Amino acid sequence: MKLSINVKNINYFTVRKIRDVLTSEKDTAQKNWFGQYKSQATKDWQAILALYHKDNVHLAEAAQIMVQNVQYEVPALRKIVQNCVKQQQELHRKEGEYKRSGEEFKARYAKECAKLGIEGKQVRQELLQRSECLPALYLEMAQALRGDEIRKACALYEAFVEYATEKKFGPASGRGALLPALAALQKDELPTLQQMEAVAFAEDAVTLEDMQSLVAGGGGGDAGEIDWGDLGGGAEASGGGEIDWGDVGADAGAGDGIDWGDDGGGEIEIEVQEDGVDGEAAASEPGEAFKTATSRARLVSEVMELHTFLRARLAELDSDEYVAVGAQDLPAPLQDESSAAVRVLETAAASALALLTAPATQQLITLRSSRRFRDRLVKSLEQRAENAEKMVACIATCIRKRDELQEAIADVQPKIKVLADATRTVQRGTEELMTEQYKGRRINIVGDINTVLNV
Predict the structure, then answer these.
(1) Calpha distance 357→361 (Å, rounded)
(2) How far apart are CA 187 and CA 183, in angstroms?
(3) How far apart are the first and last CA of the chain?
(4) Which whole number is the average pLDDT over 327-332?
(5) CB neighbour list of residue 408: distance below 8 Å, 6 or more residues apart
């Protein structure tokens, strides 16, 4: 018969069990004429058992085992389990926080991308593609500012100022227009989309690297070489690099002096524009008002000025203290002035101003004209996406650690059970030994041992 016994866990009850097994086997249980066992193994284990009985060493050993297990071993293992459970709860709480944070980062990222009008898969490329709609947006602004309501509002404002200041404005008066940028935009023809593309991309800060990231591949030719044309060949280049100044002396006449023309002996007159920018020269080509940051700022300022006037005028017309001036004394645009008509003009000006100053519009302009702003915006969006990915990684880490803690608990629980069963065995065996020692009087071991082992 074979017994599976750990040498480290051998105690009195293990020795007695081994002795009982040896004495129950036919080969090892035989005795000689003197009543001694013939098997040496049986004799050895019987001698060990006798040593245990001497001075009640077996009871002392049992007491030591029970105290060690009840006060130290079992509580230590259970404390490990409790710590693992506590860590699992903390990880579960953190996992919930990471999920909420990750969802918030994703929601913010999606909200920012939606505000910019992009999907968010390839941020830089999508932003560059988004800025391609800037010419169409400029064309929409131009159409809004050339509308009948804005023209009527400009005429009303100019008539009101002329009536109040008794000064004339416009080309005929020798002064510039009261709103030169708006006047030039309304006077010129409506730009085409191709013309607006040249205007919109006049301050383009998109580099070659940006275009390569936007469109993979390229056209033909060597991109690194500049074509300077035919500098050395042909009939026009003959002469060894000399410059042909033409016939300098042919028309110079006999004199060596410079002909300054006939100044007539008169005085030189310099015309000073009072308003700084002449209405006719404010825009030399269609869409010039949208070309630079300065021209755009001037246009926005004039629209704001117009809108402010209309709001103030509307408040005056709606006021109970307003007294109308005789129609015969008013300019033509002011004669048909009414609260309802001015409210329509104010609404149109407010819509045009909102279109010019919309955050999305300013963002598109800055995206195209400022590489630093574009890089900062891309970095900000990518940081939000990275934060969401970090939260996902943290959630995976929490799940992995919880699984590891669960494995640790599953590894410790059997040890607690084995230790508790061994302690109960020692407890029952000790109770039986002491009951025999006290001639059948029942002995029970009570106290913390029952509380600890029954948990």
Answers:
(1) 7
(2) 6
(3) 35
(4) 62
(5) 80, 84
Query: If DSSP codes are grouped into helix, strand and coil, which group holds residue 250?
Result: coil
**Which residues on adjacent β-strands are paired with residue 37?**
31
Helix (H, G, I), strand (E, B), or coil: what is residue 1? coil
pLDDT tens digits for range 247-287: 444 444 444 444 444 544 444 443 434 444 444 444 456 67
Q: CA-CA distance, 363 to 370, in Å (whole number)?
A: 10
For 119-153, give one letter per residue: b (16+ CB within 10 A) or e.
ebeebbebbbebbeebbebbbebbebbbeebbbbb
Provide CB contacts within 8 A for 6, sequence distance 6+: none
**Of 432, 413, 429, 443, whose CA–CA distance to 66 is shortest?**
429
Structure tokens at 455: 């948990």
CA distance 381 to 105: 10
- The dihedral of CA 183, 189, 191, 195: what is its sign? negative
Handedness of CA 21, 22, 25, 30 (dihedral sign): negative
